[in-house]
Amino acid sequence: MPRPDEATAAGAADLRAPVLGGLAWAGALAGLLMPGRALLVLSVIVLGAGLAVVRRRPHAAQTVAAALVVLLGVGAAAHLRAGATEDSALRAWADEQAVAELTGLVTTDPRPRAGEHGGYVLVRMQVHTATARGQTRRTRLPVMVVAPESWAEPGVRPELGSVISLRGRLAPVDGELAALVRARGSPVVLQEPGRVLDGAARVRAALRASVAHLPPEERSLIPALVVGDDQGMPEQLVEDFEVSGLTHLLAVSGTNLTLMVGFLLTLARWSRVRGRGLLVVGACGVVGFVLLARTEPSVVRAAAMGTVGLLAMTSDGRQRGTRGLGVAVVGLLLFDPWLATTIGFALSVCATAGILFLAPGWRDAMARWMPRWLAEAIAVPLAAQVACTPIIAAISGKVSLVAVAANLVAAPAVGPATVAGLGGGLVGVVWGAAAKVPGTVAGAGGWWIVTVAERSGALHAPAIDWTASVAGVSGLTLACVLLTIVLGRLLPRRWPTLLLALVLGVVIAVPMPTPGWPPRGWVLAACDVGQGDATLVRAGPDAAVVVDVGPDPDLMAACLRRFGVRHVPALVLTHFHADHVGGLDGVLGAVPVGEIWVSPVDEPAPAADWVRRRGVEEQVPVAVPPLGQVRRVGAAVWQVIGPRRVVAGGAEGEGGRANNASIVQVVEVGGVRALLTGDMEPEAQVLLRRDLPALQVDVMTVPHHGSPHQDEAFLAGTGARLALVSVGEDNGYGHPGPRTVDVLEDTGARVLRTDRHGDLVVVVDAEGEWGARSSR
């Protein structure tokens, strides 16, 4: 058997450093998660096993010694640091929820957040002195400050690197933080940030200013590409990036550093810098990146992985990168052992390892029948995606099918957008007006990336759901291992590879017919369109009355296609909130529409104006139906029974008046009587219950996506045996509320929801009996 150095010389990967990195990871996890006595027993066992190996194989003494030092050393360091936090006075005061005076260093930018009861600001800080219960302690432990919204305002906002004092109530928290601090009042700034951090802040501000003239998507994306500043990213765009496997572009990652330092090294070579001068330029680039992106653990981790990526790009890059990966893992865990428990660390390490160990072989295999540059462009994201897929599935419950293709298509724009964005920040510090030029260039690249994310997310099947259970993730891990073996044999062959790619592309892009769906005899359907409403009432073989159109035109158009709807005699928009009218263009212009009924309250006004304008453009009349109006279309008859009168909302806040103005209808189709409620809130529900006490139906769409704010007497009094909840998966509103579901089930109603069951349909058989079916 060849020695390690002989294997390395022959081109095989030297795995000694990555193995040490894996041991360091295991040691950190053991040190953080195991109690002291158990850790001591485990250490003795490991040490004994190591000595036994040395006795049997004396030539392995050096390797075993290194492994023991790393495993036990990192484990001990992690345990000692965790113990210091656990036994600190801050942790004890937090357990008592004491009020404390704290002085310390601000280690993150203040981050505004939206909460259920209003906004707040998160600031991480390293405490220098703490006073509580009449005692003062000196320390260097981190805390997370939950502060009022005013902390984000100019003149109050504490900048990164400043020393501040504050007063607040401590609360217990798990992990590396010593306490959670609920701040009272404004902070007192004792010391401003140094010149270096102040300069970095100026560059970040100039970067945002250089793209301020761009559309919202590109304006928020460019700072995320350059320094991981993703504040202000539209929620739907973030979701598109997640589905398309482009989320890594929104966070500080090794890619950012590789692009920036690579650009600096290119400039240095053009300037005839050689040898050690390039090392100095590279080192300065790494330090500058860390300062610009903020000296947080996640940034240091990204810098380390980016440095490994740069090593992999040099001569003998695979060996240097492999060794660098092991050294980086050990160093990072000594710097911050809590990284071992974070998803970001796991993703970075796995992606880097995948690129180092899998990408070169796959690239060389495909280079036999395609250009080498194209083979590399495919192999790198493919290797990273395969390596990270089990972890991504564990945290998201999804496996992206478009990630590799999306990254491949977006890749040409990432470098120019990132580098031009950095240029905008640097130029903007000196000349603000001129910074718009590189900012515009960055925006062009950002537009392409946004387009790729949006189009990928709108495909028929961009991702598949996957259980995040231990069994599910373990099975997926095994599948990925098998996939690497299969790809190793498949990729050298042109036609099988192209055939597999074609089949996968068809599955992703083209809706496949589902046998038996929609079921024969369907009369009413609640389409799965995410966090919004879209209901179809069947009016003929290829016609349906549509009630609301959800938030997304593509999802709405797909709903019509699934159910074979080619004509919409009437379109009812219960009210003008985006989750009910945003998908309008998926109906208007896609199929013929006879008329549009709308709410009597034009709130929000921009949405109401847009709906009416689209009606004029498509020559479709738009009208407010009178209360009590009855209409028949084909086999469907419906009557408007609300709003009884417009009332303000209560618990739901400023959108309550529009919600209570929702058009409410009773529909009869196929012998089934259904109540379609829109987003009516308790106030409107009480009015309807009092005015129509004898109202009885078979099916009900649950008001406002099952919001917790309901009139329980109304829900229980309709007699509905089937309750349909149109709701988005993992929505941030807590819909449907558990109490709402309990009330409905207590009445004997069967509750189906689109986030769990997909499309929901009411079916009537040949004997006139009705029932419910779902697509999942």
From TrEMBL:
Identification of the protein by name: Competence protein ComEC
Bilayer topology annotation: Multi-pass membrane protein
Domain Metallo-beta-lactamase: 531-729
Species name: Nocardioides massiliensis
Keyword Transmembrane: yes
Origin: domain of life: Bacteria
Compartment(s): Cell membrane
The keyword Chloroplast belongs to this UniProt entry's keyword annotation: no
Keywords, ordered alphabetically: Cell membrane, Membrane, Transmembrane, Transmembrane helix
Transmembrane segments: 23-53, 60-80, 246-265, 277-295, 338-361, 373-395, 401-422, 429-450, 470-491, 498-517
